[in-house]
């Protein structure tokens, strides 16, 4: 098992993908949050709560939740690229107990997703406090609370990496898997939210769980207002976190079980 | 080979046993009731036209494809049950199974880690397979020959006792093929097991000791190549307006007991058991007219073609086109005839010259 994990870490660092992932983390974290802070959420169109308010900080950092597609896509690629480039043959020849391969990928990419999350949120903290200081604005949330929120976001990134690995194992075709993962995260849930009645289940969907974990309800609220439906009430952050962990667990179990009997042609 | 010493294992530890192996997909049966064994110490050729089920069989032996029925074992164990799979078996199934953005060294280091082999083994193989210069380059820049060597290097990481190669000479230049032959020979001479598949008999003819021939997923022939060669008999093709009288005369003649006659098309006969001068003499003695006489040199290729042809007996009057080609032989198939063999001449009627079409298996 240790051999497999070591091999997967080598695989992760054998191409420059990890470098691009870090560039994305810094760009979305420090770059995006710094930019939004510099502009000021109160100046958005439509305006969001000001940076000086707790709600303003929460919404601003919650935007990071939209970038979960990056770690999700990385996790998906971890499995699908093995099929696309046919390295799955060598991999399963060296490790015929296939669950070990997927377990190795889950361990490696959960760690990788966590690193991604920490770089994302670390640079986001720099962007937030740096841009706020430059504007002379005060951040309307305790530093400790900001850091805790960011840590929750970092964990979210790791969980989505795991979800990506699971989906990649299920849908081996790289293009289809990526389209499903990114398409669902971007549009699928928002469309569900718009359907009256169906939005009741939103808190139980991955996006809803993510929203409660990151305390980012702005979109859900705004949509509910616009559609004049009741805002779907989200789970508590802990509940959302547990639910998301449950999704990740299901993805992990599927990732380990599904390739067992499938033919590798 | 490597400086590593291989674990001392008896021949029974390295024998591949395939028994009643069957693979059915929704609509096709790729392999049906296939049984054979592959012995250590010799190079075994796994032959058959494209689409005969060779790759599926190899993938079943390696546990990548689950058989519908039957078993395939290496040293008595299924692949997934091997204690140290990559130390026992090395296999190359895809001509190019690398991430295009990884370097050759990067690729090998991943699998060295997975098998638990030291990085020095990677350097050793890069050296042995003449990839050191290219080790840092991304595999997308590699030529076919380099890809083949990198695949082989991956398979050899664990210094395995058993080697399975699927169509290894595809895309290799003559030097590469010569190198591969020497390599496989020395590998087998060390008492190891080699199974190498090909749809071109002539490509492996010089290196294989044993053959397993399959067609449409079923076993057609298996055993030492030399035995198979002995079973080939030369034939004479004869065109006569008095075919029936000629047949009768030959059967009644001096060589009658050994003679076999079968009808080819348009008045041509294929006669075995006599050579062309004996046939001509007997025809003259019987007063039977003979318009054309062609010696058909029996070759192993011919036999292989007969064994693997979908439509035996082979339709191959000299006027005909190259005969049925096994599925998948492309236009490249008909290139490079070997001189000195008159067979299945495509255009003999038109050109008077027996043309070469080794078509079938090239």
Automatic annotation (TrEMBL), chain A:
The keyword Membrane appears for this protein: yes
Source species, domain of life: Bacteria
Entry's transmembrane regions: 18-39, 59-80, 101-134, 146-168, 175-195, 232-258
UniProt keywords, alphabetically: Membrane, Transmembrane, Transmembrane helix
Protein's recorded name: ABC transporter permease
Organism annotation: Streptomyces cacaoi
From TrEMBL, chain B:
Keyword Transport: yes
UniProt KW keywords: ATP-binding, Nucleotide-binding, Transport
Keyword Transmembrane included in the entry's annotation: no
Biased composition range(s): Low complexity: 317-335
InterPro entries, per the entry: AAA+_ATPase (IPR003593), ABC_transporter-like_ATP-bd (IPR003439), P-loop_NTPase (IPR027417)
UniProt-annotated stretches for the region Disordered: 308-362
Pfam family, one: ABC_tran
Domain ABC transporter: 16-241
GO molecular function: ATP binding; ATP hydrolysis activity
Family: Belongs to the ABC transporter superfamily.
Protein name: ABC transporter ATP-binding protein
């Amino acid at each position: 098992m240790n051999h497999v994990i070591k091999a997967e870490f080598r695989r992760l660092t054998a191409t420059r993908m990890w470098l691009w992932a870090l560039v994305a983390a810094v760009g979305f974290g420090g770059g995006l949050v710094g930019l939004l802070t510099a502009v000021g959420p109160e100046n958005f169109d439509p305006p969001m709560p000001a940076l000086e308010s707790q709600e303003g900080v929460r919404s601003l950092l919650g935007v990071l939740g939209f970038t979960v597609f990056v770690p999700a896509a990385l996790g998906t690629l971890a499995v699908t690229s093995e099929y696309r480039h046919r390295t799955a043959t060598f991999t399963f020849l060296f490790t015929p107990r296939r669950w070990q391969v997927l377990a190795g990928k889950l361990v490696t990419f959960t760690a990788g997703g966590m690193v991604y999350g920490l770089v994302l949120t670390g640079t986001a903290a720099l962007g937030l406090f740096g841009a706020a200081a430059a504007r002379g604005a005060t951040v309307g949330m305790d530093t400790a609370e900001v850091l805790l929120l960011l840590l929750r976001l970092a964990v979210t990134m790791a969980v989505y990496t795991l979800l990506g690995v699971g989906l990649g194992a299920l849908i081996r075709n790289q293009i289809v898997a990526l389209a499903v993962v990114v398409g669902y995260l971007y549009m699928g849930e928002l469309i569900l939210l718009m359907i009256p009645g169906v939005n009741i289940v939103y808190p139980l969907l991955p996006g809803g769980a993510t929203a409660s974990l990151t305390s980012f309800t702005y979109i859900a609220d705004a949509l509910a207002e616009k559609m004049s439906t009741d805002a779907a009430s989200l789970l508590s952050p802990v509940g959302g976190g547990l639910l998301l962990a449950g999704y990740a667990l299901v993805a992990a179990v599927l990732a380990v079980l599904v390739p067992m009997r499938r033919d590798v042609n | 080979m490597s400086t590593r010493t291989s674990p001392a294992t008896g021949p029974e530890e390295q024998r591949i046993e395939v028994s009643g192996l069957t693979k059915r997909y929704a609509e096709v049966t790729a392999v049906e009731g296939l049984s054979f064994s592959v012995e250590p110490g010799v190079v075994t050729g796994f032959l058959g036209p494209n689409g005969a089920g060779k790759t599926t069989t190899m993938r079943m032996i390696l546990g990548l494809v689950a058989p519908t029925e039957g078993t395939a074992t290496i040293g008595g164990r299924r692949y997934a049950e091997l204690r140290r799979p990559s130390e026992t078996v090395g296999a190359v199934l895809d001509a190019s199974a690398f991430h295009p953005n990884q370097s050759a060294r990067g690729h090998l280091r991943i699998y060295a880690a997975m098998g638990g082999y030291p990085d020095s083994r990677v350097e050793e193989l890069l050296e042995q397979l003449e990839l050191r210069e290219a080790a840092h380059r991304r595999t997308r820049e590699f030529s076919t020959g380099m890809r083949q060597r990198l695949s082989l290097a991956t398979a050899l990481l664990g210094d395995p006792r058993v080697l399975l190669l699927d169509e290894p000479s595809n895309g290799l230049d003559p030097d590469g093929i010569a190198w591969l032959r020497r390599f496989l020979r020395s590998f087998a001479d060390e008492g190891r097991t080699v199974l190498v598949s090909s749809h071109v008999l002539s490509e492996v003819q010089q290196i294989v000791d044993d053959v397993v021939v399959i067609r449409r997923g079923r076993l057609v022939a298996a055993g030492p190549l030399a035995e198979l060669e002995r079973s080939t008999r030369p034939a004479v093709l004869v065109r006569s307006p008095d075919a029936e009288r000629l047949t009768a005369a030959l059967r009644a003649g001096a060589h009658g007991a050994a003679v076999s006659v079968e009808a080819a098309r348009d008045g041509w006969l294929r006669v075995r058991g006599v050579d062309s001068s004996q046939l001509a003499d007997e025809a003259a003695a019987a007063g039977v007219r003979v318009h054309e006489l062609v010696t058909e040199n029996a070759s192993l290729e011919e036999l292989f073609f007969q064994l693997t042809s979908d439509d035996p007996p082979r339709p191959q009057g000299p006027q005909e086109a190259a005969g049925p080609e096994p599925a998948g032989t492309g236009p490249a198939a008909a290139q490079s005839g070997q001189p000195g063999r008159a067979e299945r001449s495509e255009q003999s009627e038109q050109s008077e010259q027996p043309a070469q079409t080794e078509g079938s298996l090239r």
